[in-house]
Amino acid sequence: MARLPYLDRADLAPENQDLLPRSINLYRLLAHSPGASRHFRALGQFIRHGSRLDARLRELAILQVGWLTRSPYEFSHHVKIGREFGVTDADIRAITVENAGGASSLEPLARTVLRAAREMTRDLAVSEATLGELKASLDPECLVDLLVTIAFYNGVVRLLGSLDVEVEPEYQSYLDEFPLPGDASPR
User: 171: Cβ–Cβ under 8 A, 6 or more apart, which residues?
Assistant: First the structure.
C-alpha cells in the first residue's frame, strides 16, 4: 500500500490539475508536491521526447535499471513504453541473459548500454572501459543523455520504493510475461 494517499484531479487546485495528464500512480503521488512534480516530469519528458539518444537504447537502459533494482512499477511501465519505441521481446529477454553474464544476441552497442546501466546502478559510476566503448559509438551529447537517463531512473526506482507505489492492474500483465528475478514485491 502506498505510503501517501493517491490524489485525483478533483483533489488538486485548478491550477495544478494538469499534473495528472494520465492517472498513473506515480503521478498521483508526486502531485502532493506540485513544484517537484512539474520539474520531475519536465526531465522525464526531455528524456523521452527531447533527447537525440536512440529511443530503443534509452528504453533498454531504463529496463536494465528496473530489472536490476527489481522495481515492478518501473519495469512493467517500461516494457509497455519500450515496445512503443522499438524494444522487442527478444531485447527484453536479453536483459536476463546479459545479467547472468551470458552473451545475448543484442548488437554490441546495446550490450554496452546495458553494462553501463548495470555499472552505474551497482557501482554508482560507469567504468572507464565501458565509457570508452560508449564514446566510440555515441557523440558527447548522446553519451551525456544516456548517463542522465540512467541516473534519473535510478532516482525514480528509489522514489517508487520509498513511496511504495503500486503497479496499476493494467500493467500487471507485463510482469506476468517478464517476471523480475528473486523476491520482487508486488509494487
Answer: 73, 76, 77, 80
The CATH classification of domain 53-177, taken from the options 3.60.15.10, 1.20.1290.10, 1.10.10.10, 3.40.50.2000 = 1.20.1290.10
The verdict on pTM exceeding 0.90 is: yes
- Alpha helices (runs of H) in 31-185, residue ranges in sequence order: 34-45, 55-68, 72-84, 89-99, 108-123, 128-137, 140-163, 172-177
Place of cell 523521452: 48
pLDDT per residue of the chain (187 residues) written in tens, 0 to 9: 999 999 999 999 999 999 999 899 999 999 999 999 999 999 999 999 999 999 999 999 999 999 999 999 999 999 999 999 999 999 999 999 999 999 899 999 999 999 999 999 999 999 999 999 999 999 999 999 999 999 999 999 999 999 999 999 999 999 999 999 985 444 4
